[in-house]
Amino acid sequence: MTYRGFINFLCLGNRAVTILNRSSGRLHIQMGIRNIASQAESGFNPAKVAVVTKMTRYEFEQQRYRFSELSEEDLKQLLALKGSSYLGLLERHNIHTRNVEHIVESLQKEGMEVRVVKRGQYDEETVRWADAIISAGGDGTMLLVASKVFNKDQPVLGVNTDPERSEGHLCLPVRYTHAFPEALQKLRRGQFRWQWRQRIRLHLEGTGINPTPVDLHEQQLSLEQHNQAHRITLMEAQSSEACSLSKPYLLPVRGLNEIFIGESLSSRVKYKSFKPHLTLSLHRASYYEISVDDGPWEKQKSSGLSICTGTGSKAWSYNINKLVEQAVGEVLRIGNAQMGLDIPLSQELIEKVTDEYNKSLVFGPEEGRMIFSIREPIVNRVFSSSRQRGFANRVCVRSRCWDACMVVDGGTSFEFNDGAIATITMNEEDQLRTVLLEN
Amino acid sequence: MTYRGFINFLCLGNRAVTILNRSSGRLHIQMGIRNIASQAESGFNPAKVAVVTKMTRYEFEQQRYRFSELSEEDLKQLLALKGSSYLGLLERHNIHTRNVEHIVESLQKEGMEVRVVKRGQYDEETVRWADAIISAGGDGTMLLVASKVFNKDQPVLGVNTDPERSEGHLCLPVRYTHAFPEALQKLRRGQFRWQWRQRIRLHLEGTGINPTPVDLHEQQLSLEQHNQAHRITLMEAQSSEACSLSKPYLLPVRGLNEIFIGESLSSRVKYKSFKPHLTLSLHRASYYEISVDDGPWEKQKSSGLSICTGTGSKAWSYNINKLVEQAVGEVLRIGNAQMGLDIPLSQELIEKVTDEYNKSLVFGPEEGRMIFSIREPIVNRVFSSSRQRGFANRVCVRSRCWDACMVVDGGTSFEFNDGAIATITMNEEDQLRTVLLEN
């Protein structure tokens, strides 16, 4: 029986857990309820661990100039001319690399088989092979790792390999970066809890849709792929089964943080020419219609629409919605004046109100609902919006955009043009199994 | 003497204006102070008028599919499959076209020589030829027209050719769209005022800068241009005059609305390959340092930085900064609770406070100062920002970005990567001469 099969067997009941301690060979039987923190879980001791590493900025710069006919010396000079940043880039790169080595050595000391995979090489085969996957980077790397995991039993851990530069919301507490053996020990002893992060799924329908995903991080568009998908779409439309296009198509992605819908965030390539033909309209407004929880359709115009999970409520959505003290203070001042009050507003009060407001934007990763947020709504004669933000279990969006897309976790994008309809929901099957380790 | 020379001659004094009425041949001499509304200006009667027209969405869709091997019939079918939008596109296109014809006929009836120029053909030669330039489209077309005008004596007018769809902040009042002869009459009689819209200028310095502008609307990147500019930059850096790169370079653009600085809004092309190599990171944070009015440098991380004029304070900057009633209501509620007040908050009060707050974001187009706004500031251990928004006469920004750019009026972009420093100021020479016509 594979290790995963074994854990599945063990977890059938919430109340009884059995641990097979691999190193000692002894079988422990423990009774306990799943949510008792100290003995919450059976020990976690994967045999095969994939470590997926981020691309550092140093590596990015190297790659960027690779094709510009500059020699390595030219490159060094060019970067050096920019002042301290070259040395800084190298320093961050080395810190990351050392932290990755620390993780790998710790895993190997525990007798685990380790496969280190750069983000560009991470694929479904890695996911199939591994008993557990460790993301060694920042939150971006965690999002990438999660993007190829569709089995809610597959455990994923994040380790922040540059805590001074990276927030690491999705990673283990920062202290484990340099003390990874401690983390492994706690995992082995069951001194942790599984955290089941809810994710978003997407159905796409409507005429002229193109379900071909574009990987923004791979940074390559396949001309053939675009052409082909486009022709197939048209041919299907012309055939007698044209109506089949209107069946909702479940996209092969899950949003761990959020889905973002907006105008002109994709590139368009001239199919008959190799000259790149790019449409980049930085702040052309996005037009769409939205229906929340099967409510009435509303026409809207904005900088875009974000639908986030509890996990994502601390990410981009948080930054879209949060208020700064300057704005809060001004609102309270105007409010007091309008209400005829003469109460002085201390900086402390303004801080408290700001904090309380911003806290209300965040909710738990395990909650089975989403928050939709309209970024920079544009209100005028034609367009209105009743709510700029709210909870939802189901969001439907109909595109009225020229050249827009839906972006999942900032990493994968889908065309979402005039006529397409997206249905955004959650399903328990899509949960991501991560680790909650006390600090 | 050219017409423009004549007007220059006449305007030497603010207090005396002379009108030569072209149609009657009579010379009127009028005394008046420049800011008396009814006889505010000498009559405006240009001999040569360029009419620059926008590209409608219908034309955009036609162009988009031109190279995808679809026949015109295929195209019609594909668009028709999307439902009503095809007919809608055509309708808007026809409305725009009719309004352009109305403008052209009205000008020709007045004996003016008219040159109709599509936005793609509009160039410096058009600007040199014309006594006055009319933008026939929406605000976007006005921005384009303004982008090639550097002489503050060159008059520019905007006519909104689709008032039902376009806001037209920069255009004449909507009624003149269908009654353009009335506008011409008022102009002829001097029943208008010149509005001198202040604009922003940019100096760029620092090592490794690339002063080659990328025209986002032309939607084409010249591979040769990129290569060449890049090599020249490096060669200059290597030469003994390397220090000359650090002298501030005045960019050949002026911002009528705003300058926006942000991460990964440009595309990057692999020089040695024709496969497009695109870096699109929709919400990778922008890192930079900012100094306002020669104040201390502050490290910041955000979704980007906007510096706008009075004109632009009603545009993108407004949408970045404005608050919705939902947020204002919540802040007032929390504030009241924190202050221990038990005052009910009516919807009317919330509306008033919201309106007053949002009004405070707008200032006059003729004011010689700018507003800087930080879009979605990210505050954490490393980064802080004292103010999210404020007035400034001078803003310096040092890029710490991977792959960012500075975008002027949403139309022209410049690389702005690690090491580059932008100095953003205003100069009276850069004013744009537009028309203020009463409704």
Supply database-style keywords.
homodimer; 439 residues; alpha+beta; 7-stranded antiparallel beta sheet; 6-stranded mixed beta sheet; 28% helix; globular; disordered N terminus
Helical region count of chain A?
11
Overall pLDDT metric of chain A: 80
Helix percentage range of chain A: 25-40%
Beta-strand percent range of chain A: 15-25%
Biggest interface goes to:
A-B, 98 and 96 residues
Radius of gyration of chain A: 25 Å
> What's the multimeric state?
homodimer
Uncertain runs of chain A: 1-39, 219-234, 240-245, 265-282
Question: Topology of this protein?
Answer:
The structure is a homodimer of 439-residue chains.
Chain A: H1 3-10, E1 16-20, E2 27-31, E3 48-53, H2 57-64, H3 72-81, H4 85-109, E4 113-118, H5 124-129, E5 132-137, H6 139-147, E6 155-160, H7 180-189, E7 193-197, E8 200-205, E9 214-215, H8 223-238, E10 249-250, E11 258-263, E12 286-292, E13 298-302, E14 304-308, H9 316-321, H10 325-338, H11 347-359, E15 370-375, E16 389-392, E17 394-399, E18 404-408, E19 412-415, E20 421-426, E21 432-436
